[in-house]
Amino acid sequence: MKNILLPLFILLTSCLKATPAPNFIVTDSDGQKQNLYQNYINQDKLVVLEAFFIACPPCNTHAPLVKSLYEQVQAAYPGKVEFMLLSTQNGDLNTNVAQYKTSKGFTMPAVGSDGGSLTALQPYTSNQFGLFYGTPTFIVIAPGTGEVHFDIRGNSASQTIALLEAKIAELVSTPPPPPVVCNLKNVVDVGLSGVDLKVSAIGAALPYDTTLSAAGSYSVSNIAALNNVDYSIVPSKDDNPLNGLTTYDLVLISKHILGIEPLSCDWQQVAADVNCSGSITTLDIVTARKVILGILLELPCKSWRFIPDSIVTTNGNCTDFIGVKMGDVNGWPCVQANGPIDERSTLSLSANDQLLQAGDRVLLEISCPENIDLQGLQGSLQVNQENISVTNMHSTLLTDFDNSFNLKSQRNGYIPISWIDGYGQQLPANSIVVTLEITALKNCRLSDCIQLSQNGSLVSEAYEVSGRNRDLVLEWVKNVNQEGQTYSISPNPSPGVFYISYISKSGEPVKVEVYDQLSRLVSMEDFDAVEGYNHWQIDLEQFGTGIYFVMANDEIVGKVLVQK
């Protein structure tokens, strides 16, 4: 009977040894997460586990020899071998294990019961890989395959260490074949970081399903579990959806839909399909605009898509993946010729400043002093919500300006603005671009309570039909007479015709006089004012270039530079 059982035991033990190690995730005494496969086996690193406990006399006898062997193999096989101590006792907490490491001069990871050591050791202490004889027990797990070499043990501590050294040399010293390396790049051939690659074996005897993190390139050729089996690789990347996404991209998508200027690159058409429907429609513009305005916090199918979106291959092969940032169609080289000009100038919008009393309701008109052809603009108004409330926003000038869409997107004191017109629209000089209806909650000055923000992900900028992008700024006009009434003059400089804007508290008539630098009267007009906002035109086209002084009811309220 003994002669029959012994070969059977040897055969059973051999089969058990060929079983890959079960994965575990533990937290070591330094607070670091340790994932057996993700951190080590899949990275082609050999792992030596020591089942021990702090008060174990034989473990303490082995400790100096273990320390010496660890330092030796770390130097001989840099980045290829790791040791890990796992306690078998409930009473050995990570704090105790940390003290034990210090006392022994150990630098390898060590895990107590509260870090998950008992669960990680359970397959070995329950005789799944062979009889467990107690501590110390050394378990060697092969790189790549996860094959278990259980209970490396000699007749003495020194003999055990010698056997461990030999087993490590056997499994590590054979150099693997050069890996097949594939690229992870964006559409301008720059390496991508933060890419997750889901690798799954198809129809394999042993299941293999893991996610690798990669930057710039990756390889799966040294993962033994993928030898002689088919497997799929699916890349993914999800970061800030606003990176690279602006209203100018929506302008270009709109032009594509309208047939004005088709997107010429394959990757642009992938990026323009923001909702991943398989086609480019106005709904893609709506979806991207909601992200810009903060209504949606993420894109429907993650921030990035890849070309190709996945592959199925075998025997360590891989493929290059090109990452496309969703919504960002404004890239190199496809739209370089018709894209935005790099040298930017500033487009200054203007608004009349004034002091508000609590309860005042006013219209704040933001005007553009230039004659300009625009196809889009975006910005973010920062509002002091303790002092004022913006109750409405509208534009009678911008075609299809969605009044409620912008205002309903107000969050944390910011009102985002996004407008596009793929055909382009001409804005006459001094035209009112946007009007805000404001209620004062406290006494305040408008310029202290609302600003055009250049901070954050929604940069304030305008897009001309010519392809030039311009930074938007908001300038406050603060011409105030002795009664505290506010006047503004725009445009300034002026080609000859300019406008006076005036907030009247009484509705009394206003006499406007204009004098040249020699104090000669060149213009005088009487205007009937209304209580609230007034807007009057002054024509100096018949006069020469120079500085002119403007008086209202015998008080100087400003000056204007006429340039022709």
Question: What do these coordinates show?
Answer:
The protein has 564 residues and is an alpha+beta fold. Among the domains are: 12-172, Glutaredoxin; 487-564, Macroglobulin (MG2) domain (Immunoglobulin-like, Sandwich), CATH 2.60.40.1930. It has eleven helices and 34 strands. Strands 16, 19, 21, 24, 25 and 26 form a six-stranded mixed beta sheet that branches. Strands 5-4-3-6-7 form a five-stranded mixed beta sheet, sandwiched between helices. Strand 9 and strand 10 (209-214) form a beta hairpin. Helix 3 runs parallel beside helix 6 and helix 7 (247-258) packs antiparallel against helix 9. The longest helix is centred in the first third of the chain and has 20 residues, at 57-76. It is elongated, with a radius of gyration of 37 Å. The N and C termini lie far apart (116 Å). The model is unreliable at 1-17 and 335-342 (pLDDT under 50).
Features of the shown structure:
single chain; 564 residues; alpha+beta; Glutaredoxin; Immunoglobulin-like; 34 strands; 21% helix; 37% strand; disordered N terminus
